[in-house]
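Teaching assistant here, posting this on the class forum so everyone can see the example we discussed in section. The complex has two components, and the goal was to see what a joint structure prediction looks like when all of them are supplied at once.
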Amino acid sequence: QEKTVSGTVTSAADGMPLPGVNILVKGTSTGTQTDFDGNFTIDASEGQTLVVSYIGMKTTEVVIGASSAVNIQLEEDAQALEEVVVTALGISREKKQLGYSSQEVGGDAVSTVQSGNVANALSGKVSGLQIKRNNNMGGSTNVVIRGSNSITGNNQALWVVDGVPIDNSNINDNTQLSGGSGFDFGNGASDINPDDIESMNVLKGAAATALYGSRAANGAIIITTKKGKKDQGLGVTITNSTIIGKIDKKTFPEYQKEYGAGYGPSFRENVDFDGDGVNDKIVLTGHDASYGPAFDPNLMVYQWNSFDPALPTYMQKTPWVAAKNGAAAFFEQSVTQTNSVSVSGGTDESSFRLSYTRLDQDGILPNSKLKRHTINFSASHNLSDKITVSGAANYIKTNVTGRNETGYSDNIVSAFRQWWQTNVDLKEQRNAYFSTGRNITWNTKSQNDLVPAYHDNPYFQRYESYESDRKNRFFGFGAVNYDVNDWFSITGRASVDTYDYIQEERVAVGSNRPSQYQRYNRNFTELNYDLLLNFNTNISDRISFTGLLGMNSRRSYLNTILQSTNGGLKVPGLYALNNSVNPILPPTETEEKKAVDGIFASASFGFDNMLFLEGTIRRDVSSTLPKDNNTYYYPSVTASYVFSNDIEWLTFGKLRVNYAEVGNDAPFASILDTYDKDPLFGDNATMFSVSDEKRNPDLKSERTKSWEAGLELQFFQRRLGLDLSFYQTNTVDQILPVPVTVATGYSRRFVNSGEVRNRGVEVSLNATPVKTEDFSWDVGVNWSLNRNKVLELYDDIDNIVLYSYQSNVTYNVEKGQPLGVLKGTDFVYDDQGNKVVGEDGLYLVNTSTTNEIGNVNPDWMGGLSNTFRYKNLALNFLIDMQKGGSVYSLDMWYGTGTGLYKETAGLNDLGNPKRAPLANGGGIIHPGVKENGEPNDVRLDMSDYGNLGYEQMPNRAYVYDASYIKLREVSLTYTLPKKYLEDSFFNNLELSLVGSNLWIIHKNLPYADPEAGLSSGNSQGFQSGVLPTTRDVGFNVKLQF
Amino acid sequence: CEVDHLNKDPKTTPEAPGSTLMSSAQRELFRALNTPNVNINNYRLFIQHWTEVTYIQEEQYKIQRQIPENLWEAFYKDVIKDLDEATKNIENEEVLNDNDQGIKTNQLAIIELQTILTYQYLVDMFGNVPYTESLDITNVTPKYDDAEAIYNDLIERLNTALSNLNTDYGTGDFTDQDLVYHGDISKWIAFGNALKLKFGMTLADFNPDLSKTLVEEAAPNVFVSNEGNFAFQYLGTLPNTNPVWENIVYSNRDDFVPAKTYIDKVNELEDPRRTIFFSTVNGKYIGGINGETIDDYNSVSHLGQEADGSIFRDPQLEGLIYSAAEVNFYLAEAAERGYSVGGNAKDFYTAAIRSNMEYWGVSQADIDTYLSNPAVDYDSAAGDYKQKIGDQKWVILFNRGYEAWTEYRRLDYPQLIAPETAELDQLPTRMIYPRTEQNQNGDNYNEASSAIGGDQLDTKLFWDVN
């Protein structure tokens, strides 16, 4: 009969206990894992066999005898390194056999330090994976593997959860992406709940993803969620994580403290405001700059807070001083709370897991919050010993209120960074709004015209003109697996990802902008049907074979509708279409259907467990290509050779090499020309216009060709390991909506053209320098370098302007250059490379816009993680770094022009105030040479605005090196020793202190985080009004019983 | 299985009547020329009719954003391309009888006139521009044609279009779709001739012989009263409102006020249009100084009367591209140049001012008073004919920044001085090419830039010889 068996698993080599060893009762699904001390308990009957397996160890079988105590020693097994990973299409494979690079990340690594977006947690943890997060609440994260391949298209990795491809669209509009006004609505992958993740496998190259086909041409992140198992106890896990964030002052402007509002050093002095017969000094509230009069605490002036009768300071003069509570006071503490509960269990035939997770996030801006509820259910059941059915369902409900505006206009933070008055006290602005509910702004048109000139009271804007969005999402699958015999099985799977989404934007009556209500509804569904025939057999003693035949049928459907009020809102506070001042215009609708049918095969042979060869081929038929050209094939071949079998000093060694091609189809509706329909003009005139885009009926599939070679080495019983990859990827015949001169009558033309090459090196190192019974130290290093180059564009075109940002800086794709060259105006240099200054003391500016002023691609990226374990205490920290890459700061371009920053004031080389008149020894001397070659000695007047920033400097002056070194994550985890829990209800209790972005150790960009940007996607290297970065600290509790 | 049928966009259409494309082109043409949006049209600031309040870069001639890009996009893509497509679609329409053919010929000629007009704008703003190789998507690096050559070709096309217009036939669905003349063929003929007059007068200094021929051919057939104006009736609701209203009222922003240069001039002339155009400050008309920020918006006059929402504050204010006043001024100038245009300079000059004042609703008594002002009266007004006409033309072209700027470049009157803080020490004489051209069509851009004497704001156009 069944009894409880307990024991310890240790390593035969050094007697150390082995944590995380899998123990399974043979022939059942009953299993468990050893704890940190190598201990386990399992229910089994006498005579049953325990199968004990662990990575790098020989799998051992132990028959249960009469005793209830079983101690097991495992022997190292370098040859049969049976690390199993999940690859394309959800197929589990022994890692040893794979001829391509992949890198795993455990679930803990992405759920310990929560940020609300699973992608953020990958930063620095995988070589070749570039993660660029911005600080937008619920915002998008740019995830690019091995550099950008596509010139205009999507370069993001594919996300797959338990075989379900997840829609990861960035739906931010082009205005937002080009730095105009808008919101960052995030990308779809952020809906994935980190608490449900068991493990992630990053497939980097085309060979790894060839079976997925086109959609994974940029690599794939394969997520396996936690599954139920037959646990002891109730199988309940409860976690809580609370994280508090405060802004890192190094990522927010430091204002000069000597001068206040104005575009010049004067007050309005021709008005007797208080009627005492003497003209007063009135602050020029309409001026959104700080080039005004010098502060003087003895000078009493009328400011914005003197004009509105509702304010306690009405008609009062106040001293002319810098604000006590500057713009930084606007930011609140962010609080992110994650609570989850999961129940899992199983029998011999079945297992299930049910979890609920709730995320509550309060952003750093007033009135910003994000709530996400996730319910995950997965189960599997053996109908017979041959047939297993399984399925998973995820429901995610996300409610967001008050995302931050991004980009140039309508963005409060761009005001703080570009257009601000250093005398404005945020607490007073706060009181002004909360005590009246009105838009009492610092930026009134004048003392007697109190409406906003250009900027609202920031609190009014946050609380009255906020956006909100809600998403209901479901994804999941159902699958049947039929083991026909011991070498042949059939898997059928249907999966779905579907959501409905609404975004609502509001501009309140009384704002500086016209009032408006706008709603956008989006419905998306993708269905995938897979049928897989798996073959797994040994052809002879020496030759093993794994084969696959399969088909995939994909159908997606997208439907959107955008509608807004026209001419403003009639009744304040009513955000409904029927509150439009003028009759509303017809909405903008889109409807897109897409189908791709694929069939594929793969065959893999193993020789002597030493040499592995694999080939795959896939054929796709896509609805988005012209009928005659819509079928395309692509192959991959890989080889790996385990050469360590006869080498004493080497624990494991493998060489791998592969070549793969992946085809890709066109975006929806790229073939047929159509007209845009505009609303009627008046009652009668119908309006059509030619589309901006010239489509192309002759498109064919584009193609990514890649080769890769790699080396894996493990020494000293895996205490030191190295994984090295070299790759080159060429993407050719790209389907480009290539921007063309509008003299052609179009803005873009669809063509098959262009070639981009990415080549690079990736290194992963792991080491365990110290390992004793009580103490261990693990080090992990990830380092990667990628170089990309545009080899071909189109026709005579050798440059494409992909994004045009405010101030005429452009993001370019130029033949012979890396993808993502920034261009704009530059200094004029002499032969020695000195900047040339003109007679007036201003830099000469090369106004051509073809000057290269930056390259957004980093030179290299790296991550360094250290884990120290002492008994039950584990300390982990991760340092994440990027070298090189450029970022252009529109904030500095404008903010220096308007005199906000420290650099625009203070003392000059003579020890006089820079802003003093030249006659009084003020002014600055720009470093550089005069046109005659002599060092510049012309003093430039700084007493008035107009000589710095956007007024006179080239764009080049505000391009910065985006390098950074960050202490990205720290966690200290304490696991309560088992002995304290023996008599309790609990099985496990873990407590962690966690921190993220605690310290930006190094950066070159002033006043902002070099990582911060507008959004995910190809529009990178540009900052305007980005939020400051927060330092996050918190604690986690995990309870199992 | 068959999947390709999924790729049709169900929310757009592959077919559209040519007339509907023309309507769209007309709307875009008027929008581009009427809007005061600083991202596209800053000519009111160049010519010192308007001035900016806080952000003054444009009146300092700093072209910092996508301004020329937006002009090209409007003219090439939103106007000329749609007219080109309209032409193709109308040409493809089936013709059953002579009447159909007559309608079709008229429709095509009407579209052609507007295409010619738009190309003239491009040339007069930029100089050499893509022309013979434009609108061909298979050639994405079109060469720039010589400005004079484009003019010559446009004139030839204009003569052909004029000879094709035939009052014996109607204009079909243009009655509804033509948002300017509503298919009135005789108005199009008068406009076509006025356009020819404009070509002729623009060439007056450069090629007097051709100028004389064109003007004398056109003069008998032009429109001379406001009924013939090339104008566009805006509607009360977005997006078909007058862009001036959108930018100075609907936007809630106080970016623009009348310029001191202009206000001082109309104050000096005691111009009755002031009461229609401007508000007062303590009973006075005060303008803002170009190139300087205005600290107090209320210390200067505003555009239109805020209280009654009149003129510039009316979303339905008519958009104007070519008015009878301009035709009369051209004729006055032609008379002075010795062309035979059926009248004398003074009469045309007086008719020009009168028609403009009538257009704005000035009373006959006030018009008479104004015309009798010795500084206005043609016989006693200061200077030669270029100054007399130039000064008054600049006055009547208020809110018509582009035309005012072009006539200033041509006549060199009134003698305006660039703001002290401006990038140039004189007014711009052309608009710079879109900077995207440097990157997208670099070789042709470079060739054109050197051909015209440099891609600069102060490069002079070929006809700007004096």
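For the discussion questions: Chain B has a mean pLDDT of 95. Residues 243-313 of chain B form one domain. Think about how each of these relates to the inputs above.
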